[in-house]
Amino acid sequence: MKVVLTRGDLLKGISTVQSAVASKNTMPILANVLLEAREKKLELVATDLDMGIRCSVQAEVVDKGSITINAKKLSDIVRELPEASVDLEIDDSHKMVLICQKSSFKIHGLPKDDFPILPEVKKDKVFRVKGSLIQEMIHKSIFAVSTDETRYVLNGVYFQAEGGKLRMVATDGHRLAFIQKKLEGKTEEKCSVIIPTKTLNELSKAVSDVGKGKEDEITVEITATDNQIKFVVDGVEIVSRLIEGQFPNYEQVIPKESDKKLEASTADLSAATRRVAILTSEKSNSIRYQVKGNKLTISSKTPDMGEAKEEMDVNYKGEEISIAYNAKYVLDVLKNVGTEAVNIELTQPLSPGIIRPKGDSDYLCVIMPMRV
Q: For residue 210, how far is the Cα from the chain centroid?
């Protein structure tokens, strides 16, 4: 194998796939990135066996071939190179010679034969979604995913396509985020899968990276089977295993009615919550919201720290209520609503509450109250 390409293109390719490199190396070759020279391009692949990423960069291919090289070492080298042409050549002993201006490196590699092949995902169910739309849905749901590995089925986002709508739902048992969007065009396909958090983070990153400097909207092609999913973003492929199991019936968690409705400024509520949360303990992070008339009082009290209180004006319909929430959960929602005002729906002090963006019925977050 012998190729010539720019340092920028090589670094871009390595950066795209590097997140899929295994962090815990049960197999030494999983710490490597596969480089394969094809017609006028260099293809790069990395995988940790749960997720794999493939991309291509432009290159002058003198001789076709392949090699796997330690991803971190290759990345460290390329990052330090000057912005110039890079020559890559493989010898018969699986060493890669890298030359850039006056710098040269010889790096030991492993043959392609031992590198895992990314699984082919059959095109049973295919959807096409705007990149900006899928990014928005990821950002507005992923923060509610559980990090408790014993609740494996909650370690990802529930992805459901049905009736021309796409829904994403995440929950950790204490809060739930739900968002839905209408799919463009006619699609009768149905799909219900749980996608790991890491995969969705990489998808969002790929959409951002690919879309830089482009005026046209990026399209994401999604192909799903019962146990695999593939995302294609302008030539970048992300293939991932799905989380197996039954996602909880999220519709049962969302309160159907509420007799107490509050409207508040998103920025003011967020700022007041942050200030009052300073005097909470890391263990509980609990703050109290008391609303009476059109006044909302936010307070916290921690025996070994002190107490804080702040009042703000709101629009409120309903009887007086006092309810406690985890401040972080409230702030996570307010950071993602994307509107100047939010609507909060309450029933009882120990019943879940709903936070919605004002004027948007397709996004909501449910938060369970705390006993204090």
A: 16
Contact predicate 4/60, CB 8 Å: yes
303, part of any domain: yes
Neighbouring-strand partners of residue 85: 6
Residues 274-313 have pLDDT tens digits of: 999 999 988 889 999 999 999 999 999 998 889 999 999 9
C-alpha span between 327 and 334 (Å, rounded): 11
In three-state secondary structure terms, 221 is: strand
Whole-number pLDDT of residue 281: 86
Segment 213-235, tens digit of pLDDT: 777 789 999 999 889 999 999 98
| Number of Cβ within a 10 Å radius of residue 241 | 16
* Domain of 354, in residue numbers: 254-367
CA angle 84, 47, 171 (to 5 degrees): 115
For residue 370, what is the DSSP state?
B
Question: Model's pTM, two decimal places?
Answer: 0.92
> Residue 194 and residue 107: Cα distance in Å, rounded?
39
Scanning the structure block, which residue is given the tokens 């710098």?
103
Asked whether residue 46 falls in the same domain as residue 101, the answer is: yes
CATH number at residue 135: 3.10.150.10
Is 243 a member of any domain? yes
Taking each helix axis as running N to C, give the angle between helix 197-211 and helix 131-139, from 0 to 180 degrees, rounded to the nearest 10.
140
Query: How many distinct structural domains can be found in the chain?
Result: 3
Q: Nearest-CA neighbor of 68 among 93, 45, 51? A: 45
Q: Residue 165, Cβ neighbours under 10 Å: how many?
A: 13
My answer on whether 314 and 208 are in the same domain is no
- The last residue of one of the domains, among 60, 90, 114, is 114
Q: Are 17 and 44 in contact (CB under 8 A)?
A: yes
